[in-house]
Amino acid sequence: PTPPAPFDHRIVSAKRVGISNYYNVNEDEILGGGRFGQVHRCEEKATGLKLAAKIIKAKGPKQKDEVKNEINVMNQLNHVNLIQLYDAFESKNDIVLVMEYVEGGELFDRIIDENYNLTEMDTISFIKQICKGIQYMHQMYILHLDLKPENILCVNRKANQVKIIDFGLARRYKPREKLRVNFGTPEFLAPEVVNYEFVSFPTDMWSLGVIAYMLLTGLSPFLGDDDNETLNNILACNWDFEDEEFRDVSDEAKDFISKLLIKEKCWRLSATAALKHPWLTDHKLHYRLQ
């Protein structure tokens, strides 16, 4: 099997020394960004290994603890479809996570790229890998809670290999603990997050349903004219297959989505069940789609 990263899994804790002692961080080359700050390309001085440095603004102890939670989560995750952590550095105003470098770009970019014709077979390959990553996280009792196309990277342009990134909102599942997530993009939120109710493993599976819907059609199932409308669509579980973009999509794909975008979270497919669904397993279907 493909190794999870070009280096062995390591248990990382934040060092209180300057990162520039060990790494050359390329300030000009920005690989990505998000609510936390920016990701730069970097290189380990001793080995020449190409890596990615995620620079997270963290001033107070509360912010620092949130990033340390991210480190703690990543320390537990050793899987080919989850981005791997290599090192970490803490200074007065930020924490830098040094991670495996992935050159392919966001899955999100592929959805909106007119030139990149995403076939249903491509989508099956992506969803299967995302689902394996989720299954592994859930076996480790970790919830991701921020799954969306922006948080999935293609390993390289040619191969269809993908990795889940950004464990900034991820946490250990503790039964009966209400989880408060101050969320970013409403269109990917599960109803229980919008409602401030208990979240658990099915919360990530809802997001997988949204991602599958988007990869197949380029459309966002719950997106309204404003955030309020979007949130109302989610709470009403108001979505359908009416758009013409679904004309050539297989019944199996529609069935898969229908078993994830369910308001009542206990009825959604688990990651393990999803991996056994005909859409991801039926070779005759795959042959027909090729």
UniProtKB/TrEMBL annotation:
<keyword id="KW-0067">ATP-binding</keyword>
<dbReference type="InterPro" id="IPR011009">
    <property type="entry name" value="Kinase-like_dom_sf"/>
</dbReference>
<comment type="similarity">
    <text>Belongs to the protein kinase superfamily. CAMK Ser/Thr protein kinase family.</text>
</comment>
<dbReference type="InterPro" id="IPR017441">
    <property type="entry name" value="Protein_kinase_ATP_BS"/>
</dbReference>
<dbReference type="Pfam" id="PF00069">
    <property type="entry name" value="Pkinase"/>
</dbReference>
<protein>
    <submittedName>
        <fullName>MYLK4 kinase</fullName>
    </submittedName>
</protein>
<dbReference type="InterPro" id="IPR008271">
    <property type="entry name" value="Ser/Thr_kinase_AS"/>
</dbReference>
<keyword id="KW-0723">Serine/threonine-protein kinase</keyword>
<keyword id="KW-0808">Transferase</keyword>
<feature type="domain" description="Protein kinase">
    <location>
        <begin position="25"/>
        <end position="280"/>
    </location>
</feature>
<keyword id="KW-0418">Kinase</keyword>
<feature type="binding site">
    <location>
        <position position="54"/>
    </location>
    <ligand>
        <name>ATP</name>
    </ligand>
</feature>
<dbReference type="GO" id="GO:0005524">
    <property type="term" value="F:ATP binding"/>
</dbReference>
<dbReference type="InterPro" id="IPR000719">
    <property type="entry name" value="Prot_kinase_dom"/>
</dbReference>
<keyword id="KW-0547">Nucleotide-binding</keyword>
<dbReference type="GO" id="GO:0004674">
    <property type="term" value="F:protein serine/threonine kinase activity"/>
</dbReference>
